[in-house]
């Protein structure tokens, strides 16, 4: 038994040591290789990037000649030069906007950069696939659309995200809509990342919103309603407002947030009605949005909302009330009323630096007695007693 | 009891110890290998991560940074300055003064010209009384909460109640975040909606140059105790946490730097007040809750959002820290003992929890028993010299190999200590820590086990130094 154990210990130490030594060698070898690659890259960097920069800087005025194309294609055959070409292209796409971007896309297609990236999409290595999707999105070539759409069903989150972001940047409306129609709320990506993808769409956004806001899937539909709000295009307001009457809570909230974002107060009456919605989340968002819209038709309904049974609704209503012009005056009525919850919440909001500033300004500009600040102080003193 | 039987027991026990040592080191090695693959995956993932896009995006999830402070007058102001200058689209810093007896509260109020406000608090978690909330209109993302002393967990729960945003992160008052750490730690929440908690890496700031609350030059400390801890932290985070993350079995998100989905934290009852290992306890509670309710969830470790912290430089502080860690670990394991080898809790119940019971909790006892029993058995002629040497050589060599492995992972991935001199110094300390330091920390952990019942609700303190005075 002892001999057996001795052997196990010795062998395990031996194996572990070999692994560590191999790791050390691997590390050293990789650092050396990296150094060698960098040196080699340095040697050709000026040649490749200089040539490419020269073409890119004149792309707006001149067509690329056959000779230039031939040289660029030859760069693509060499691993290190191809890497530099890819790096430069990604740099151009990040920094050059406008018509030159289309010409760069065409050039990337002509020299075979897009085909090279498309080829990498067949890899079994998901990191490679995700990186290629990202690069194809930057290049914005429509040649990649079919392949990207095929990848949408892959369950790997990183690939899915980069496929959608690539489609968003390429900006083809039909492909983008098709991709989202294939998704459902089971998609693991967070709501915010999907809104970011929708916000980043570079094609006809109105077409996309009109096609995706009405999806039955509440998750995807809400994302596009919210994104439409971020787009702030007045043409979409009527369509967004339809969802204020939707049966689905998520869509209702999305529409409220979108209209609040757009600052369009044509729908204040409908939003006021939502202060009586059965869902407290809807009531809370409606109270908040009314503050964003700054419409004094909301003042009396907001005072009523100060007596809501849900804290968040009361809190948002109090904040909105004092933010709308004329709202501060109604604080007198609230403090004279019977509802302690309403009084507490409005006083607590007024006691913040922002609220107190409003109270002092009101007292300065009005001769009403007793002064509002005194009424509030009196209420706090009585409460503390 | 007759002598042959006693002899037999002693020999059998010694065999058990050496098999135990073999097994634990085999597991550590497995972790090292898993960590290497996981880190390599992560490094490749960074190449296509969109995190930079989110730094300026309105769609980035807003975050509340909770800073519990108890007698932190030395470091609190620097810490807040560093936090409010972080690179993140929308965040708030909530400093919770947990009834400090020193000048923490006044220092913060004076430095940031705060004024008391009557901000309403929704008590979704029960905490000790909040005495006041302070703000400055010109620094809208800073909130100071003054409350009655209730311990770190109570302070964090009060911070959760006051917070406005859906993700909360807890940062120790003696820690410093790198500028893009927040974005990186929140990215897993953006990438996957099932994410409920994310841990970042904690590194030791001793020896680094810190100016205006930022680490401007990373260096190695002169203090030997801090040097040993640098190697130890590399092993714990780059091998341990990354390895467990590869198995989706992370049980600890460090209290010094972790982010949580607020609703999920509230759903499980927030931080547990009756423990001193509130960070581990919250994560284990989440595992138990979501697995028991068959709800999908994800707890991740990301190795590059860095939080710099001060390591204790005296044996007294180190002892208190290790004792506290051991007590926290035990407390959490006892509280969730139903998970032990329970298939209902999947890999957490079948792998992670048993590992922590058998190796992290009982490990120090077996190790020390080995150091005592084996020489004794040799002295009394019960063991031969070969066996005696074998045990010590094995335990020391395994330790050295694992430390060197962790240093290698660091050099290969993030390379925060890039010079050859730093690599050599780290490697030397990776070897030296196995001759005394490791055994000493094992003794401190045993002290934790012994004093578990007496001290499980107390909260040890380490003397902090101001970051300004560090070089």
Automatic annotation (TrEMBL), chain B:
SUPFAM superfamilies: Nucleotide-diphospho-sugar transferases (SSF53448). InterPro entries: Glyco_trans_2-like, Nucleotide-diphossugar_trans. Gene3D superfamilies: Spore Coat Polysaccharide Biosynthesis Protein SpsA, Chain A. GO terms for molecular function: glycosyltransferase activity. The keyword Chloroplast does not apply. Keywords: Glycosyltransferase, Membrane, Transferase, Transmembrane, Transmembrane helix. It holds the Pfam family Glycos_transf_2. The chain crosses the membrane at residues 16-37, 348-381, 387-409. Residues 64-212 form the Glycosyltransferase 2-like domain. Belongs to the glycosyltransferase 2 family. This is Glycosyl transferase, group 2 family protein. It comes from Thermobrachium celere DSM 8682. The lineage of its organism: Bacteria, Bacillati, Bacillota, Clostridia, Eubacteriales.
């Amino acid at each position: 038994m002892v001999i057996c154990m001795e052997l196990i210990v010795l062998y395990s130490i031996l194996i572990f040591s070999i692994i560590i030594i191999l790791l050390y060698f691997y590390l050293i070898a990789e650092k050396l290789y990296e150094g060698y690659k960098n040196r080699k890259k340095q040697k050709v960097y000026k040649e490749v990037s200089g040539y490419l920069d020269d073409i890119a800087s004149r792309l707006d005025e001149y067509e690329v000649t056959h000779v230039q194309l031939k040289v660029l294609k030859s760069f693509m055959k060499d691993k290190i030069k191809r890497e530099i070409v890819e790096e430069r292209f990604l740099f151009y796409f990040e920094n050059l906007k406008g018509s030159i971007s289309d010409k760069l896309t065409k050039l990337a297609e002509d020299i075979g950069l897009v085909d090279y990236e498309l080829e990498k999409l067949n890899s079994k290595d998901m990191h490679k696939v995700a990186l290629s999707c990202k690069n194809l999105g930057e290049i914005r070539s429509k040649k990649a659309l079919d392949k990207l759409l095929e990848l949408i069903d892959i369950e790997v989150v990183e690939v899915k995200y980069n496929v959608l972001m690539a489609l968003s940047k390429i900006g083809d409306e039909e492909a983008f809509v098709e991709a989202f129609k294939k998704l459902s709320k089971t998609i693991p990506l967070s709501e915010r990342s999907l809104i970011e993808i929708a916000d980043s769409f570079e094609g006809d956004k109105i077409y996309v919103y009109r096609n995706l806001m009405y999806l039955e899937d509440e998750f995807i539909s809400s994302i596009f309603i919210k994104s439409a709000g971020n787009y702030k295009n007045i043409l979409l307001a009527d369509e967004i407002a339809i969802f204020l009457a939707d049966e689905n809570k998520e869509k209702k909230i999305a529409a409220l947030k979108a209209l609040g974002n757009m600052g369009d107060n044509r729908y204040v009456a409908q939003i006021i009605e939502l202060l009586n919605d059965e869902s407290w989340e809807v009531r809370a968002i409606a109270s908040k949005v009314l503050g964003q819209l700054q419409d004094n038709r909301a003042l009396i309904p907001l005072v009523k909302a100060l007596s809501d049974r849900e804290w968040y609704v009361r809190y948002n209503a109090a904040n909105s009330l004092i933010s709308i012009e004329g709202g501060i005056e109604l604080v007198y009525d609230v403090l004279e009323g019977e509802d302690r919850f309403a009084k507490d919440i409005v006083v607590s909001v007024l006691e913040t630096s922002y609220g107190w500033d409003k109270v002092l300004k009101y007292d300065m500009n009005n001769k009403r007695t007793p002064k509002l600040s005194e009424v509030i102080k009196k209420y706090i003193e009585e409460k503390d007693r | 009891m007759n002598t042959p039987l006693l002899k037999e027991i002693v020999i059998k026990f010694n065999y058990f110890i050496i098999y135990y040592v073999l097994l634990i080191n085999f597991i550590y090695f497995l972790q090292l290998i898993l960590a290497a693959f996981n880190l390599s995956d992560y490094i490749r993932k960074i190449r296509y991560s969109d995190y930079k896009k989110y730094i300026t995006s309105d769609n980035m999830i807003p975050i509340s940074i909770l800073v519990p402070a108890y007698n932190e007058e030395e470091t609190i102001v620097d810490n807040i300055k560093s936090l409010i200058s972080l690179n993140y689209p929308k965040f708030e810093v909530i400093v919770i003064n947990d009834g400090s007896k020193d000048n923490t509260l006044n220092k913060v109020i004076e430095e940031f010209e705060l004024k008391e406000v009557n901000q309403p608090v929704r008590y979704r978690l029960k905490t000790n009384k909040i005495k006041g909330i302070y703000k400055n209109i010109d620094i809208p993302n800073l909130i100071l909460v003054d409350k009655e002393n209730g311990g770190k967990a109570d302070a964090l729960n009060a911070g959760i109640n006051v917070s406005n945003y859906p993700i909360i992160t807890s940062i120790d008052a003696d820690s410093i975040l790198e500028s893009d750490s927040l974005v990186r730690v929140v990215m897993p929440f953006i990438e996957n909606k099932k994410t409920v908690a994310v841990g970042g890496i904690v590194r030791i700031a001793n020896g680094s140059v810190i100016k205006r609350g930022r680490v401007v030059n990373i260096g190695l400390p002169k203090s030997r105790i801090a040097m040993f801890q640098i190697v130890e932290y590399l092993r714990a985070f780059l091998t341990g946490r990354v390895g467990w993350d590869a198995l989706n079995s992370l049980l600890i998100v460090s209290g010094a730097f972790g982010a949580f989905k607020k609703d999920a934290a509230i759903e499980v009852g927030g931080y547990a007040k009756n423990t001193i290992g509130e960070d581990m306890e919250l994560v284990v509670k989440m595992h138990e809750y979501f697995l028991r309710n068959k709800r999908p969830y994800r707890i991740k470790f990301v190795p590059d959002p860095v939080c710099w912290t001060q390591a204790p430089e005296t044996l007294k502080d180190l002892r208190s820290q290790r004792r506290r860690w051991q007590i926290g670990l035990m407390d959490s394991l006892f509280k969730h003992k139903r998970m032990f080898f329970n298939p209902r809790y999947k890999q957490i119940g079948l792998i992670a929890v048993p590992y922590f019971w058998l190796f992290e909790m009982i490990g120090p006892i077996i190790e020390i028993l080995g150091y005592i029993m084996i020489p004794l058995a040799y002295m009394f002629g019960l063991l031969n010299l070969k066996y005696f040497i074998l045990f010590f050589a094995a335990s020391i060599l395994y330790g050295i190999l694992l430390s060197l492995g962790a240093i290698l992972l660091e050099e290969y991935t993030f390379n925060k200590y890039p010079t050859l001199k730093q690599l050599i110094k780290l490697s030397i300390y990776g070897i030296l820590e196995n001759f005394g330091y490791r055994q000493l920390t094992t003794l401190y952990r045993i002290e934790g086990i012994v004093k578990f019942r007496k001290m499980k609700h107390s909260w040890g303190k380490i003397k902090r130094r101001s970051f300004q005075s560090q070089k």
